[in-house]
Automatic annotation (TrEMBL):
PANTHER family: RNA 3' TERMINAL PHOSPHATE CYCLASE, RNA 3'-TERMINAL PHOSPHATE CYCLASE. The active site is at H334. The gene is rtcA. This is RNA 3'-terminal phosphate cyclase. One of its GO terms (biological process) is RNA processing. Catalyzes the conversion of 3'-phosphate to a 2',3'-cyclic phosphodiester at the end of RNA. The mechanism of action of the enzyme occurs in 3 steps: (A) adenylation of the enzyme by ATP; (B) transfer of adenylate to an RNA-N3'P to produce RNA-N3'PP5'A; (C) and attack of the adjacent 2'-hydroxyl on the 3'-phosphorus in the diester linkage to produce the cyclic end product. The biological role of this enzyme is unknown but it is likely to function in some aspects of cellular RNA processing. InterPro entries: RNA3'-term_phos_cycl_insert, RNA3'_phos_cyclase_dom, RNA3'_phos_cyclase_dom_sf, RNA3'_term_phos_cyc, RNA3'_term_phos_cyc_type_1, RNA3'P_cycl/enolpyr_Trfase_a/b, RPTC_insert. Belongs to the RNA 3'-terminal cyclase family. Type 1 subfamily. GO terms for cellular component: cytoplasm. It is found in: Cytoplasm. ATP binds at D107, H310, L311, A312, D313, Q314.
């Protein structure tokens, strides 16, 4: 059993530990979970991840309760003829019970596609567009399309939006057995397109919040990028009015680039490789919400990373599953913690720091996770 100290780490450390345990079939014990947080131990969203992963892997669990600071997880997965872990598919349901993030829950489950024996469907209720996590349109229009280019078979249904504080959103994730190809994300091609996904709760429709968010983001991009002669096309602009248990809004900008490197020979359509989002808040102008997302996109374009900072951490599981090369904007605390956790389970990532002034770093994984 791997014994881990979660005192200096947050919920992502717990989620990735459960994912790696499920992928390898090796049990894990996490002590002092979220120990340095104002409210240490498991909150509703962390408990929901634990319950979902336990159901999918038929795991034996101790510490599966709110505020628990020590958790043990022992997956009861089978093995195939090649000795690799096999995870049964099926249909599962989990409720967060609060506005806890459903996209972070799904992040923990997605890598399991590499070990599935049969299709899996997970229906989850909670928050779809909440602080400190990617909005659902980031998952739907940035992360999933990119991973599909490299072998993931997944689809996402959005039944209902859930904003803070009520939550009550509902998403359905469908996964099929997948074999991941090596990531080829060392070099970023030229920017070719921008997609805008702006959402408002029905209670905000009279104020045209979704339209104003989209206009604010595009005007800022045109001012900051277009003035420098950059050529980009608005490939898609979607403004959605959604039923929700409480008011709220969100915007996601997806940046598409020409393929570079070896992948250019096999992939014919531009790839979404970066996404930037902002959430509405009481008293914040809708235009400002859009501008915040655009400012983050501009800052990214000034560097050399091939994916945005959030994807940089989220893609590490897929990098060790399929191998490949990934240039990240910076080695953040999240990335360093994640790499140490991967090493605990026996999987190393090679860092190639090449002295770029912007701090970007190349991560390399040459072998597949066995």
């Amino acid at each position: 059993m791997h014994t881990l100290d979660g005192h200096d780490a947050g919920g992502q450390f717990l989620r990735r530990a459960l994912t790696l345990s499920a992928l390898t079939g090796e049990p894990v014990r996490l002590e002092r979970a979220r120990g340095d947080r104002p409210n240490p131990g498991l909150a509703n969203q962390h408990l929901a991840v634990l319950e979902a992963m336990a159901a999918i892997t038929d795991a034996e669990v101790s510490g599966g309760e709110l505020e628990a600071e020590t958790v043990e997880f022992d997956p009861r997965t089978g093995t195939g003829g090649d000795g690799a872990v096999e995870i049964s598919g099926g249909e599962y349901t989990v409720e967060v019970g609060t506005a806890g993030s459903l996209t972070l829950l799904f992040d923990a489950v997605l890598p399991l596609a590499a070990r599935l024996e049969s299709p899996l469907t997970l229906t989850a209720s909670g928050g779809t567009d909440v602080a400190w996590s990617p909005p659902v349109d980031y998952l739907r229009y940035v992360k999933l399309p990119l991973l599909r280019q490299y072998g993931l078979q997944a689809a996402l249904e959005v039944d209902r939006r859930g904003f803070y504080p009520a939550g009550a959103g509902r998403l359905r994730l469908h996964l099929a057995p997948s074999r991941f190809h090596p990531l080829d994300l060392e070099t970023r091609g030229d920017l070719t397109g921008v997609c805008v996904y702006s959402t408002e709760a029905a209670a905000l429709a009279d104020a045209d919040v979704a339209k104003r968010q989209a206009e604010g983001s595009l005007e800022r991009l045109q001012t900051r990028i277009g003035s420098d002669g950059a050529n980009f096309e608005v490939r898609e602009r979607v403004e959605t009015t959604a039923e929700s248990a409480c008011p709220g809004s969100a915007i996601v900008l997806s940046l598409e680039f020409e393929f570079a490197g070896d992948s250019a020979e096999t992939m014919s359509t531009p790839s979404p490789q970066a996404g930037f989002s902002s959430l509405g808040e009481p008293g914040k102008l809708a235009e400002r919400v859009g501008e915040e997302a655009a400012d983050a996109a501009v800052a990214f374009l000034e560097g050399n990373g091939s994916v945005d900072a959030h994807l940089a951490d989220q893609l590490l599981d897929f990098l060790v599953l399929g191998g490949g090369r990934l240039r990240i904007p910076a080695v953040t605390d999240h990335v360093e913690t994640s790499c140490r956790l991967l090493e605990t389970f026996g999987y190393d990532l090679e860092f190639e720091r090449q002295g770029n002034a912007d701090g970007s770093t190349l991560l390399v994984a040459e072998t597949e996770l066995e």
